[in-house]
Amino acid sequence: MFPLGLYTHPRMRLLYVGFVVVNRVGIYSFDKEGRLEFLRSVPHPGLAVCWLRVNRNGTRLYTGNNGLSGTPLMTLIPLFRFMI
Length: 84
Fold this sequence. Notes:
Elements: E1 3-8, E2 14-19, E3 24-30, E4 36-43, E5 49-54, E6 60-65, E7 73-75
């Protein structure tokens, strides 16, 4: 997977990664030393998900795509859903 866009969650130690070629968003956790742990990836509705931004409250992930006009919106899933 070829990551392009990266953005951290404003309140949790999460990193969101745009996997351009496979149209997915990866979710990683990281510790105080910066070590990453892959949690999961989720499908993205658009093509070539690249640029990512999380709103100030950490409830929405905005993505910019090379393959679409407009700005698709994804709702962020609480961390406990990734801990199954």
